[in-house]
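hey so i finally got around to running the thing on that chain from the lab meeting. sorry it took forever, my laptop kept dying and i had to restart like 3 times. anyway pasting the input first so we r on the same page abt which one it is
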Amino acid sequence: MESEYAHKVIDNAVSHVDGHVHTDGLENFRSLSKRGLKGTYLSVETSHLFRYLDEQAFQFNNRPTKGNPNMNDGDRFDLALPQIAGKRLTFAEVTGKARETNN
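ok and heres what got predicted. didnt touch it at all, straight out
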């Protein structure tokens, strides 16, 4: 797995860009996610934050871009449906009660 990623570091106090190393993409994702969460949900439980962020990452990775300018909500739905069809998330799992009954 380590061979897949070349981890590089940038110190924003010194420079914001060093060749292809920058934090612009991360800052863009954070900004869009923050606005998306605040604009969509009344509250976000920290225990489920990973689920909300997964949804935001899916939307971010499948947004309209120069390479795919016609991507829309219907297209994202068509991409997501095969990944969720046949899977079940119960209320007990969402509320954490499934773990309590198993212990």
